[in-house]
Amino acid sequence: MFTMAADRSLRWSALAVVPFLAWMALPAQEPAATDLASVVEELAGHGVRLDLKAQRIELEAEICQDREPLEYLLVAGHGADHESLLIVREASAQALNTAILLLGLKQGSNVQYVEKDPPPTREQMEAGESLYQEVPAQGDGFYIYVAWDQVGADGSAEHFVYRAEDLVVNVAEDRTYRRGPWVYLGSRFVRPHKDAEEFFAAEGEGNWISVCYFNPANQLMTGNDPAAGNQYVWYPNMFLMPEIGEKVRLIFSRKRLEISIPAPAAGKAAEAE
Predict the structure, then answer these.
(1) 147 phi and psi, to 5 degrees?
(2) How far apart are CA 98 and CA 84, in angstroms?
(3) Helix (H) or strand (E) segment spanning residue 37
(4) Of 32, 70, 247, 273, which residue is the least packed, with the fewest Cβ within 10 Å?
């Protein structure tokens, strides 16, 4: 049976992911349904619910911060929980990465900083212009949704679903995070020193999804807002969120989901994004 230990992280990629990725590259072959079902079942046992037909992944998470500055959307219990919107208690980064690969995503490219040619003038640099041009992260990704039920004073439950971006605000520009797919970066294997064993960085560090750019990328995914290079402007949208510790469902979808809204009142023009 699979364990969470970092030194077993290759188990998922070597024994589970590769055969199915090979099958996807060879349409004439079909995987054994029982084998695929067993992988999906084992993923669920490690907190990752994979729906291959719907192209979705779901996790159980909690609200982690509602007022503190953010660098991450999602971390594990041993991650940077003091600067993350959400925290996951009962899932594995390795299992999530396996589910992502089984949906056929390919590793995207992290942010890059390219030296400008020609460089800015001295006057431009003194005015704050950088020597480098930022090339945003790009590649395959997910639309991410956060859902929860909230019980009112009368005991009735109301269901809430928001795009993850709507729960993060840029206080410098007075706006929410730009909507769009969160780019899959895939983390990486690292060795702290030459005598240490390699480990999967997202699992070992516990930081899974960032709202800011980090280079190198140890996280599994990154947001892609135009201001993602600034680590000092992101805060929770406390006006939309439940309290710290409240349980939420985190939904990763390859397709943008249609969230139903009430029909407009008579005589009102319908508006839809």
Answers:
(1) -130, 145
(2) 23
(3) helix 33-45
(4) 273
Place of tokens 């006057």: 123
Cβ atoms of 214 and 222 closer than 8 Å: yes
Residues 67 and 147: their CA atoms lie apart, in Å, by 19
3-state secondary structure of 241: coil
Q: What CA–CA distance (Å, rounded) separates 213 from 208?
A: 13
Give the CA angle between residues 41, 254, 55 to the nearest 5°. 30
CA distance 157 to 150: 5
With CA atoms as reference, report the closest residue to 147 among 264, 83, 63: 63
Phi-psi region of 186 (alpha: psi -120 to 50; beta: other; left: phi over 0): left
List 72's β-bridge partners, or say none.
84, 210
Task: With beta carbons less than 8 A apart as the criterion, state whether 111 and 135 touch.
Answer: yes
Q: How confident is the model at residue 229 (pLDDT cuts 50, 70, 90)?
A: very high
pTM for this prediction: 0.82
Which residue's structure tokens are 């839809």?
272
pLDDT digits (tens, 9 = 90+) for 77-97: 999 999 999 999 999 999 999
What is the C-alpha separation between 137 and 224, in angstroms, rounded?
A: 6
Of residues 254, 18, 206, the one with CA closest to residue 94: 206
| Amino acid at site 128 | G
User: What ranges do the domains of the chain cover?
Assistant: 45-107+139-253
What are the DSSP calls for 129-146, one per residue?
--SEEEE--BS-EEEEEE
pLDDT at 10: 37
Tokens of 190: 């690292």
Backbone angle region of 232, left / alpha / beta, with phi > 0 → left and psi within -120 to 50 → alpha: alpha
The whole-number average pLDDT for the span 67-84 is: 97
Question: What is the C-alpha end-to-end distance of the chain, expressed in Å?
Answer: 46
Greatest alpha-carbon span in the chain: 72
